[in-house]
Design a protein that fits this description.
Rossmann fold; nine-stranded mixed beta sheet
């Protein structure tokens, strides 16, 4: 049976986490507002106590300052209680909670359009900030020759010491995570739920294996005991892209979830690569990506994936 290793935990103060929870309760107060606060050298605690310190300008800023000042006492109390519970759970699950002032907070996420103010991490935090990282996503029903191409690409990432990032879902994600791990590489598993239980449950054994490894880490923007939903699954894709230098889409239909990652990569101005479509609906997403003819886009042959992929990686 795998045993999770014990590490020194990186945790924010109770007041810092409570301030984040309180501000997040305000409609429209998303990650970029926290980044605005940080950019002027302020903290969420300071803004919660003194709303005039919020640097957001115009009518939007005025409305947010008014909302902060009007936060009911019960909301503030609930935020403090939530912070206390989450810090206790982080300790119970041997996990970290990274905020901006922690040097382990990944620079790619901070620089993205999704600078999540608190990241929950289970495993070696240093994997989140490796020099090079590539996100690999695809269909849960991925098939040949795309399965073999994804395995070869994943093994290449491991051999090249490039960190692999994916969503721990069934199908393409699991194939990629497993291939990288078996080849001795490093992998980041971005979860759509709290880090207290595996999702999907079918990956429970892989979850246990990765928890015992120094080459795998789980990360989520969702607090402990939060269950996966359509919303969290979509948001998970945005964080996958934020943690990487570029995105590879192995196989996807035009309506597949992997296409959300593609659209987030466009938003974040990240390079994209994919495999040639075969004319079926299963690869209509690959065709949509290829037809976009965007800058820093590479499409390569699934029969010889490394011919194009290695060149694409070198340009990241």
């Amino acid at each position: 049976m795998s045993i999770e290793r014990t590490t020194a935990l990186r945790l924010p103060t109770h007041t810092a986490l409570a301030a984040i929870f309180a501000l997040e309760s305000i409609k429209g107060f998303g990650p970029n507002k926290f980044k605005e606060i940080d950019a002027v050298g302020r903290t969420p605690e300071e803004v919660l106590d003194a709303p005039d310190l919020l640097p957001t300008r115009g009518k939007r800023g005025a409305a947010l300052r008014e909302a902060i000042a009007a936060l009911p006492q019960n909301v503030r109390l609930d935020a403090r209680e939530r912070a206390e519970r989450q810090l206790a759970l982080a300790t119970e699950y041997n996990s970290h909670i990274l905020t901006y002032n922690d040097p382990a907070y990944p620079r790619r996420v901070y620089a993205s359009n999704n600078p999540v103010p608190a990241l929950f991490v289970r495993g070696p935090v240093e994997l989140l900030s490796q020099d090079s990282a590539v996100a690999c996503v695809g269909s849960r029903s991925i098939r040949e020759p795309y399965v073999s191409a994804l395995r070869r690409i994943s093994e290449y990432l491991a051999i090249s010491r490039i960190t692999h990032v994916s969503g721990f879902a069934l199908g393409a994600d699991t194939i990629g995570h497993t291939a990288v791990h078996e080849a001795g590489g490093k992998t980041i598993c971005v979860m759509p739920s709290g880090l207290d239980a595996p999702f999907p449950p079918e990956n429970r054994e892989l979850w246990k294996e990765f928890l015992a490894s120094e080459r795998a880490v789980f990360v989520s923007e969702f607090f402990f005991h939060r269950r996966a939903s359509a919303l969290t699954l979509r948001k998970r894709n945005k964080l996958i892209v934020a943690l990487a230098d570029g995105l590879f889409v192995a196989q996807s239909s035009a309506s597949g979830g992997a296409m959300n990652a593609y659209r987030f990569a466009i938003e974040q101005k990240k390079p994209v690569s994919t495999l040639q479509a075969d004319g079926s609906s299963d690869t209509s997403g690959n065709q949509e990506i290829a037809d976009a003819h965007r800058p820093r886009l590479t499409v390569f042959d699934p029969a010889r994936p490394l011919d194009g992929f290695t060149e694409w990686v070198l340009r990241l």
